Amino acid sequence: MTYTKDYIEENKKYRAEILPELSEHCLLCRDAPCTAACPEGLDPARMIRAVRFDNAAGAYGFAGGGCADCSSPCEDACVALDRPVRISEISALVRSAKEPVKASASLETEFLGVKCENPFFLSSSVVASGYEMCARALSEGWAGIVYKTIGNFIPEEASPRFDAVGKEATPFIGFGNIEQISDKSPDENFEILRRLKQNFPTKVIVASIMGRDEDEWTYLAKRSEECGADIIECNFSCPHMSAHGLGADVGTDPALVEKYTKAVKRGASIPVLAKMTPNLTHIEIPAKAAVKAGADGLAAINTIKSIRGWNAMSKSPLLSVSGKSSVSGYSGKAVKPIALRFIHDMAICPELYNVPISGMGGIETWRDAVDFIAMGCMNLQVTTAVMQYGYRIIDDLTDGLSRYLTASGYGNVKSLCGAALPEFIGTDEIDRTTIEFPAFDMTKCVGCGRCAVSCDDGGHQAIAFGEDRKPKLRGAKCVGCQLCRLVCPAGAISVSKRVRKIKR
């Protein structure tokens, strides 16, 4: 379907639905041919990227005003796999909104006593594992880097070591890896950190370290401070280390967490972050041990122990190395709800009250950032989204967050921090006396019957679906679970006004 000018004007309320659909086809090219082909010198690739990262307001400034009368050479130059991206229609939709609020809110923060130009850091991983790449990231706008974990144990890496988890047309909802800590020597890594701090004095350099005993932890901490690092992150949580007594083996044992945190504090006077593992039930237990031992802040979560799966046709494991696999670390968008739960548990723990938290686990857009900040994080770390899309996502992370803070009346990041915590209560406190029935918009309904199928087989048989192919609610059976709304592909079901339950 071609979205004409009239359609756009008459259906502005559908912008949020149409825009993602149009932009998802874009490959997010490097040195995008569409931008090179634009006769007006505009940047359609940057516009589409802003839309893809949920920053339609930020896309406004890249949309231009003359696209409607243009012959669209940008679309002719598009290298999308099966058909060109409809760039002119995206531009028209973006411009159909009123001019958005300017991004005026400051993103400057203070974390562990260290000034940060914004809350976004690269997390300790392959995306922060060498001088050139870290320097490029810092130059592009990242406020800091948590360098790939340094240790005296130097691993021999496997090949391959990455795999992605998809669903239907979405190829990258989760990410598996069996990569370990840095394969460079401590001397080489600390020299890289020294150079980074020397050449980027206003950026925040965090040394992630992992030792095998107290002496190693103390030594690595001492070297971290000597090279100019601003903060030390103790990696107590890597889920797939090949050497015993490293990574998550430490993070699940509060006694070891306490012992090694004390060892780090003996070696350095700069702030110390304890990076927590999600591979346990109560993250607050080792977190309390870390703080008791002197940790200045907490970081969570590291990747989740996982097994990617089994290829039934080849009869071999996924993420196969010479026909074999192992437990891997799972990350990406799919783990975000788990990360938020663990961060919530630490943030509300009385013994951890006011302990600064660096949050990570599925951060991809500014909306994700808002969720983590509102849950109590003053600092955010990103890896998987960078591996998929590159350092350039920092543009829409910062722009989108600043626009949100401006439009929502938050003066800065700190004023948003923890704002969501009071809204999460115990399951025994949830209101169970009222109900929200689904509301059906028959102008949007396409008659597919998905709502009835799901309600029949996964709900309470509360939707009738007759010969007219339109759903009808059986109110006496409906419990307001909203499953129908969640599965509707046409967006034809919404939530009605909350009312008090009628006792039956």
Provide the number of structural domains.
3
The CATH class name of the largest domain reads Alpha Beta
What's the total helix number? 20
How are strands sequenced across the largest beta sheet? 3-4-7-8-9-10-15-16
**CATH architecture heading of the largest domain:** Alpha-Beta Barrel
Helix content: 25-40%
Low-confidence sequence ranges: 7-11
Report the radius of gyration as a whole number of Å. 25 Å
Strand content: 15-25%
Give the biggest sheet.
8 strands, parallel, barrel
How would you state the average pLDDT, rounded? 91
- Output the structural class: alpha/beta
Shape descriptor reads globular
Tell me the distance between the termini: 48 Å
Record field, number of beta strands: 22
CATH superfamily of the largest domain: Aldolase class I
The CATH topology name of the largest domain reads: TIM Barrel
Question: Overview of this structure, please?
Answer:
The protein has 504 residues and is α/β, with parallel strands linked by helices. The protein contains 20 helices and 22 strands. The model is unreliable at 7-11 (pLDDT under 50). It has 3 domains: 5-95, Fumarate Reductase Iron-sulfur Protein, Chain B, domain 2; 109-423, TIM Barrel; 431-500, Alpha-Beta Plaits. Helix 8 (131-140) links the parallel strand 3 (120-122) and strand 4 (144-150). It is globular. The chain has an 8-stranded parallel barrel, surrounded by 8 helices. The longest helix has 15 residues, at 394-408.
